[in-house]
Amino acid sequence: MNITLDEAAKERLSAHLGADKILLLTFEDGVGPYSQHAMIHMQTQFSINVISNEMEKADYDEKIPSEIGDFWIKGYSKEDLQAEMRIKFNPRLSTFSLSGEGGMIDDNLGFIDFTKN
Predict the structure, then answer these.
(1) CA-CA distance, 71 to 77, in Å (whole number)?
(2) CA-CA distance, 39 to 29, in Å (whole number)?
(3) Is 77 helix (H, G, I), strand (E, B) or coil?
(4) DSSP one-letter string for 19-68
(5) What domain range includes position 105?
(6) Is the four-CA dihedral 111, 71, 25, 101 of positive or negative sign?
(7) Which of 95, 96, 108, 117 is the most interior residue, by most CB within 10 Å?
């Protein structure tokens, strides 16, 4: 598995990253401290989350490489993902999307930086 990001997505996400930060690609199933399933629109399947090294990530047991770092995932969420994926940022709508070789996975990928209080 691999995730490629367009330039706009790289720029937008890189602003939130650093040596002490971890990227998550969260399957919105209500499991774990970062799943917002009950708090956001039901159509959202995944979200991008940023956490610090000290924050809990026990539910995230596998990782997918990208140009800006590994995205940690809940291993069982791989069944809803594809081998080659792409994250794009739409500046007009200020939204991310996640697609794969088989088509769109999530056209409104959420983003939460949990390191910002």
Answers:
(1) 12
(2) 11
(3) helix
(4) TTEEEEEEE-SS-STT--TTTS-TT--EEEEEEETTS--TT--EEE--TT
(5) 2-113
(6) positive
(7) 96
CATH number of the domain that residue 98 is part of: 2.60.300.12
Nearest to 65 by CA among 116, 103, 25, 36: 25
How does pLDDT run across 43-91, given as a tens digit for each residue? 558 999 999 999 999 999 999 999 999 999 999 999 999 999 999 999 9
Distance CA 92, CA 20 (A): 30
Does residue 11 sit in helix, strand or coil?
helix
Q: Which two tokens stand for residue 39?
A: 């708090």
84-90 and 2-5: which strand pairing? parallel
Query: Residue 98 has which token pair?
Result: 């996640």
pLDDT interval class at 35 (50, 70, 90): confident
Tally of domains in the chain: 1
DSSP-assigned beta bridge partners for residue 99:
86, 104
